[in-house]
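Morning. Coffee machine broken again, so started the prediction first thing and wrote up yesterday's gels while waiting. Chain of 195 residues, entered below exactly as on the submission form.
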Amino acid sequence: MILHEPNVVRQGGNGVSHEGAEQEGLLVTPFNFSMVDKGVYRSGFPSIINFPFLETLHLRSIIYLCQEPYPADNIEFIENHGIKLFHFGIEGNKEPFVNIPEDAIREALKVLLDVGNHPVLIHCKRGKHRTGCLVGCLRRVQNWCLSSIFDEYQRFAGLKSRVLDQQFIELFDISGFKRSNCVSTHFPGPSVLKS
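Came back before lunch.
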């Protein structure tokens, strides 16, 4: 059985504790978890209670978009499971003073488009803004229309949707990436980067 963390764990509430989840054999997804595409997932920051669920994904890589160092428990988990960590320290785009660095998103997108890194989990703190920007740029490469990209961004950001993030996605230069000619959202293959 798989449960989403917000429905299970409530600090000081009547939710299931980490020990309770283990005893009952529950798999708890990280906050804001979703499948983006075949072999590509997104979420908020995974905690120890999410590790049994993450094991079921058989991850090869994690793209971590926060500035803070990866916690010791998470490092131990990825080392024990042979998962590569790609750390792109991006500060949140809290308007009007902080901009998402385009070069960092470009490098993260290269990692994401390399199917040799799949299955891959993309995450930041809450799986909303930085993760939403990277996924939005991926959708641009996949030829999604902007209204669909923004709809997806807003579903994960909720009431905390940021206009500057959406502007960043719209203006992001995808000219260094081949556009997929297929209607499917699946990755076009390893030759997605222009030489």
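Residues 1-14, 180-185, 189-195 have pLDDT under 50 and may be disordered. Going to sketch it on the whiteboard this afternoon.
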